[in-house]
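It is worth pausing here to work through a concrete case rather than discussing structure prediction in the abstract. The textbook approach is simple: state the sequence, then state the predicted structure, then interpret. We follow exactly that order.
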Amino acid sequence: MFIDTHCHLDAPEFGQTQAELLQAAQRVGVSRIVIPAVERANFERVRHLCERFPDCQPAYGIHPLFTDEATPEDLMRLREVLREGKTIAIGEIGLDFFIENHKVAQQEGFFVAQLKLAREFDLPVLLHTRRAVDEVLKQLRQIRLRGGIAHAFSGSRQQADEFIKLGFKLGFGGAMTYPRASRIRELARTLPLDSLVLETDAPDIPPEFILRGQPNKPEYLPRIAQVLAELRGLSLIEVAQATTENALSVLPGLIFPPKPL
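Step two, the predicted structure:
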């Protein structure tokens, strides 16, 4: 069994093909998929997909790239959704300092507010950390949580160890499949196995083995896992079992979906 801990199944690139995508994923052993929201505008679409497809579980949050247009009312709506008790995590949240002219204060304000919501509702978080790993860690040290996942991790070994100390798992996906991604592959090879979870980030971060320009899909997760198995000298079954246990430990709502408050 495999768990895709980060898949934007609601993305426009997929149109209305979610049923076919999930059937293809199920055929290769992907049994659970986490769908993170990125802004208030797609909360309802994520909810609808997860109600329609029992193998999917939602996370709700405001992504740093959507904070420029976000308002305090969006945070109020997020709180309302969390009070319904049907989410397994808050996400995708975090910081992104890769884009030009990023509004640091705006991003940090929404990030901190959502971390406080995670603490209030005792929920794990799905973190976006592009070019902002140290800044994210700084906030996590100040606002202690039950943990979560550092999605698409690409930081240093020292930064990885800091996340692990704070109770986080590290997400590895398509980027790991590129032979030239030496740093990410070394991390995947040497980090403690119990700190790793698998993800696609579909339709983004396509793996090396698909045609350029094609979207990533959850059905590719076992092939991504095979790369991790080869890097670590393990069988695919061992990687599937370990990463599934890791995902269930950090996202317990995948085992028993949370009940309304």
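Step three, interpretation. The longest strand covers residues 30-36. Residues 20 and 146 are 35 Å apart (CA to CA).
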